[in-house]
Amino acid sequence: MTDLLIRGADLVGRGRSDLLIRNGRFVDPGDAGADVDQLDADGLIALPGLVDLHTHLREPGREDAETVLSGTLAAARGGFTAVLAMANTTPVTDTAEAAEHVAALGARDGYAQVVPVGAVSKGLDGVELAELGLMARSSTRVRVFSDDGHCVSDARLMRRALEYVRAFDGVVAQHAQDPQLAGASACCHEGEISGKLGLPGWPAAAEASVVARDVQIAELTRSRLHICHVSCAETVDVIRWAKQRDINVTAEVAPHHLMLTTNEVLGYDPTYKVNPPLRPSEHVEVLREALADGTIDAVATDHAPHARHDKEHAFAEAAFGMLGLETALAVVVETMIKSELLSWTDLAKRMSIMPAHIARLTDQGRPLAAGEPANVILVDPAARGVVDRNDSASLSRNNPWHGRELPDPVVATIWAGRVTYQKGR
Ligand SMILES: [Zn+2]
């Protein structure tokens, strides 16, 4: 492989510098030989490759909606060099063999590192513990376990899962949704708008009450808990309380919850049907502040591709979920950088360093320094564009940002020394 020299990138906080990549790693830029490919990074910011804790790649089982190839191409376009692939595929990733299969698909087709998430319960049924130990000891060394799509609502099962993963420094990632308070049909934040539209309500308490219970169980078991897609202010209060008590809990927020509100649902457009639902603006404000002060550790996309025939229905019948990989950084720049709630250094923590740490990925979220794996993105802080859902690597089109003007920051993505995306190429 020819060396790659990135010239004059802004290494936020460390001034402008060249970066030289050889055999998948950074080396001293002074070592550049004559035979070197060059990438001009004048005016661009270099950040560690982004890591998404929460991606639905849909393969195996729903290759009409997304594949490992299309999903990781979308990831590369969005600046991601690693994605955690959620377990709710067909079959479910609930055995060592299933996890190794997903990892093998990633090794074959991936434009980013594909890290399988293991299910907490067999078949995501919430009853019987999946093969957590075998998945952890498999060649893919699964560390993140989640029944995402479903809540681990049985407190005893949650306790057992947390006790189990502690042995190998694993983490249980909870989709917090009390099924008694917010059942499968709940699809709109419970309030004025759900009443007006006649849609089944999804109250904030259904999320916050499960998180309140789970942080108690995490304290009891002295194990590691992660909260998926925090959507409401009440949950932020609980997480802040738990962190003050030194309970081992981390949390993520999805880009759509940082910007979109329940008002989007007024047009009954199923593109805006997502679980947990979009919340009123006062929740959005609290989520931004919580991401800024570190109460929420990470941004995670909850990229959820759906084929047209699953999404284009009346609101109540349509599938839950939105695309997110290609637009996540744009939304975080728009909501957090422009408002100066986050610096670029802190953005790198929330979108690369912390997610890599939570998932215990050793080759991601690393400094841009000699000897380290060359996972890096180049970002234009000023570029903007209008999002077009048809200009996408994803096989699906359920893009809630279609037609909006947003930042268009990603210029190039380099994963393990390989250019996986370059704007205009
Ligand atoms: Zn979920």
Number of helices: 11
Assign the CATH superfamily of the largest domain. Metal-dependent hydrolases
Uncertain spans, ≥5 residues at pLDDT below 50?
none
Give the % helix: 25-40%
Give a quick account of the main beta sheet: strands, pairing sense, barrel closure. 5 strands, parallel
Strand arrangement, major sheet: 9-10-13-14-15
Report on the structure:
The protein is of the alpha/beta class. The protein has 2 domains: 3-45 and 373-422, Urease, subunit C, domain 1; 49-358, Alpha-Beta Barrel (TIM Barrel), CATH 3.20.20. 28% of the residues lie in helices and 20% in strands. The chain contains 11 helices and 20 strands. The protein has helices at residues 68-77, 96-109, 132-137, 155-166, 192-197, 204-221, 233-244, 281-293, 308-311, 328-337, 344-358; strands spanning 3-10, 16-22, 25-27, 36-40, 45-48, 50-55, 80-85, 113-116, 144-145, 171-174, 188-189, 201-202, 225-227, 249-253, 298-299, 376-379, 384-386, 405-407, 410-415, 418-422. Strands 9-10-13-14-15 form a 5-stranded parallel beta sheet. A 4-stranded mixed beta sheet has the order 3-2-1-4, with no helix packed on it. A 4-stranded antiparallel beta sheet has the order 5-16-19-20. Helix 4 crosses helix 6 (204-221). It is globular. The two termini are 20 Å apart. The mean pLDDT is 97. The structure holds zinc ion (ZN). The site of zinc ion has 5 residues, from loops.
